[in-house]
Amino acid sequence: MKRAKILMGAVLLCLCLAGCGEPETIPVSVDEPLPDSQTVVITCAGDCTLGTDAAFGGITLPKELELQGGDYSYFLRNVLPYFAGDDLTMVNLEGTLTDRGVRLDKTYAFRGAPDYTQILTQGSVEAVTLANNHSLDYGDVSMQDTKRYLDEAGIHWVEGLHTKVATFSDVKVGMVGLNALSSAAANQLPKAMAQVKDAGAELILVQFHWGIEGEHYPTQGQIALAHQAVDLGADLVIGHHPHVLQGLEQYKGRMIVYSLGNFCFGGNQNPRDKDTMIYRQTFTLGESGVTDWNNYCVIPCSISSTPERNNYQPTPVYGEEGRRIKEKIQTFSNQLGAIRIRFQSDIY
């Protein structure tokens, strides 16, 4: 497990270094699994745009890196206790990592330097989905380069029918990422699910890029696709693209997170809505597969450690601001069914 290699995570604020347990607890280690069972801890966060649009001025993400003396660890430092204390952290990488290609003629096109993969590795992110509307912002070559640099950094990536099964904590986790802004996603989903099952996945995580920007409630199309994924065997469904938070739903015992919002987001220097969250779940598996889908928690965060602007440093939020974000997420979730969201308690 990653917690063995990052000992300092046990010291950093003593923050939720493993399964969340009851919402009011903040444990620093995972309970020993029951005989003949295994646990795996998965953490997910939203849109990470590690770069900028060429037209942006001011303090962009690359400029912030320069101000920080080239310290790649700056960006995910405040959430590292969560990311380092699990088995798998996965985010949506929304943009390209390349120094080649021609900018597409679109409103926003995002590009970062190839070495920005170090933001992910130093932030203890093991996997990303590239299934979004910015992975080709500098043409086909930009997608090819992004995949190559991720491979060289040892970061797993998924996109469309390029699925992945990797082992974490002795559990084979199947990862699927689909861009549901395209109608192809509904047709790709059954085949993608079959691929990871055929590759021996014991637990399946599905990520969708979907919905309407700025909307806090999922469309009927999102809901139908999420339910289809669960019906096909998904153990967890994660969504992004609206750039704001949406609610959570429990369907057939499985959790669906419709939008995690922005996270380490170089796509806007000062968005009005800086609210975001980390979603964390501990799965218990027995001989027949997953036996517990309810051991999860939500950690309210801001995309910035300062309210004045976006400084590209997502940070957990506590106190009154934390309670405000919790109430917001709970309100959005109330429209999706009777569910009491499990939040990590305030520690201040």
Task: Describe the SSE topology.
Blueprint: H1 2-5, E1 38-49, H2 61-67, H3 80-84, E2 88-93, E3 96-97, E4 111-112, H4 117-122, E5 127-129, H5 140-153, E6 156-158, E7 164-168, E8 171-179, H6 184-198, E9 203-209, H7 220-231, E10 236-240, E11 248-251, E12 254-257, E13 262-265, E14 275-286, E15 289-292, E16 296-302, E17 315-316, H8 319-334
Parallel strand pairs: 1-2, 1-13, 2-5, 3-4, 5-6, 8-9, 9-10, 10-12
Antiparallel strand pairs: 1-14, 7-8, 11-12, 14-15, 14-16, 16-17
Structural class: alpha/beta
Task: Give me the strand/helix succession.
Answer: HEHHEEEHEHEEEHEHEEEEEEEEH
Uncertain residue segments:
3-33
Major pleated sheet? 9 strands, mixed
Number of strands: 17
In DSSP terms, counting alpha (H) and pi (I) runs of 4 or more, how many helices?
Answer: 8
> Over the alpha carbons, how many angstroms does the gyration radius reach?
19 Å
Shape, principal axes of CA atoms: globular
What is the end-to-end distance? 28 Å
Q: What value does the average pLDDT take? A: 91
What fraction strand?
25-35%
Helix amount: 10-25%
